[in-house]
Amino acid sequence: MQQVRQASIKQRIPVxxxxxxxxxGKTTLVNHILREQHGQKVAVIVxxxxxxxxxxxxxxxxxxxxxxxxxxxxxxxxxxxxxMRTLEDLMQRTDLDAVxxxxxxxxxxxxxxxxxxxxxxxxxxxxxxxxxxxVDACNLQRNLTDNCEVQEQIAFADILLINKTDLVSxxxxxxxxQQIRSLNPIxxxxxxxxxxxxxxxILGTGAFNLAAKLEVxxxxxxDLEHEHDAAIGSFALTSKQPIDLNKFMFxxxxxxxxxxEDLYRTKGLFYAQGFSERMLFQSVRMLTSxxxxxxxxxxxxxxxxxxxxxxxxxxxxFVEGFEKCIVPKVEENLEDYQYFLGAF
Length: 344
Known about the structure:
Blueprint (H helix, E strand, L loop, with lengths): L1 H10 L1 E7 L6 H11 L5 E6 L7 H4 L6 E6 L9 H11 L7 E5 L6 H9 L2 H4 L2 E11 L3 H7 L1 H9 L2 E5 L6 H14 L4 E4 L18 H7 L15 E8 L5 H15 L3 E8 L6 E8 L2 E9 L8 E8 L3 H9 L21
Parallel strand pairs: 1-4, 1-5, 2-3, 2-4, 5-6, 6-7
Antiparallel strand pairs: 8-12, 9-10, 9-12, 10-11
């Protein structure tokens, strides 16, 4: 009987849930996994809080991957039914080796876990392998103070990746690890830069333990509805006209200084004047960055899509500032706008 049970478990598709607060580096980690996981057929489920999906556009993909995106809601609540339907569709695939689920940074991990444990039709086909939580070393203290989801994500983790360790001191890193240990004394902890970690440390570990999770949250199998902080919202800014990236970066740097405590996360792909590539802009609180992404494809529509997530943000104020960065049509063909970003 035991041998039959073990064979049944091996036949199930392992699922790795990747959690972590906004800007911690979840998408970077998923891309690292996809680059290194050679020869495996992987389904990637990406959930984003905003109405436009940026992360899915940044995923590495080939014929071995299947990407499914859920936007404008969390897998732990509003779009959970979509997750169930997607998993039912994936059951039809006989060649699938693994599933990666990247949750939104505001997700409560417990309801996501129960999706794979409670319904009989799901748990007979999929097995939860591990919850991997990515922690932003630079912003952990602020995130813990402002958002209960961060505590839940850390406490629920089987494996914790303290990411962006290159941006903190050795002393600060020791304090971060001590703080994490106070919330989760049993999870494996690894230090990473840009989400780079040896895959055997996070995949195929069998680290998920239902009994341990029930100790953290005895009610999580009761399928209670998760409620988000109503003050936290998201909106998208878009433009089919090119953006003056110099003006935009100046504007965003001012905003980051003024509203850094409430501006949790921005992420966007830009149609920027003077560049043949998509430009990827990101900010996490007061830290901003921009870099070249891939070249625009010949038949691809060029447009800018920017998602903003934060607390009590005035959308009209952002729209007004963003529109001032749009290049007037008469200037569309100018190519001299790279002086500020020449290093990128």
